[in-house]
Specification:
10 helices, four-stranded antiparallel sheet, alpha/beta, single chain, Rossmann fold, 10 strands
Length: 260
Amino acid sequence: MSESLLAARDVRMAFGGVVALDGASVEVRPGCVTGLIGRNGSGKSTLFNCLTGFLKPTSGVVELDGRDITGHAPHEVMRAGVARTFQTPRIDFQTTGRQAVLCGLYPRVSHGFVASLLGLPRAVREEQALQRRADEVVERMRMQAWADAKVNQLSMGRVRTVEVARAIAADTRFVLLDEPAAGIGRDEMRVLADEIRGLAERGIGVLLVEHNFSLIRVLCEDVTVLDTGAVIFRGTPEEARQNDQVKQLYLGAAAAGEAA
């Protein structure tokens, strides 16, 4: 039996003459938080899009549990157990936070539209179970005080919290978080960090793209560093912090001073 694993192997992604990824690889294992870092334009989001079916690589392979899923449609990847967030939240801003979380559960719905429309018992039971699950996630993410406000009335930090909550709601096996801490406050950051730890403790694999290296250090067991579409480092966050090339390209002078 193949090991449970989400992986990109030797992925190349070219847009005309522009090479966004050049032989990039990353692995996400159940119960582990893996960091993916790099400067703006290094290829992080492109790699995310290849892993989740939003882009089909020019070459290379995306695997889930040893099965080639390269180029599979996003909804197929999601149904297989891979969820993601986006740098720019993709949420209907006219819904409430609670409704947005509930929407994250619908890819798992087994009953059809007609059964729901007719109010058949099985459909009613499933709808009730989804509501309970959404309420559980709202409570766990400490959203109760504002969950019933419309998303367009929320701060960007809370909007990002909603998107993370929606991504984790469906009990996926792998969650890919694209800069989830951008624009959020200290208290929200603590909630986010606790929830990411909780995901790993429940056996979920997490791939975390994040500019906040302090969060990477606290949460991640290993980190992959991209530059101009290629992997330049793979190791622990502490090893990354001590690596001269990583310090020069990504962490900057402040981190270099800290590591000295």
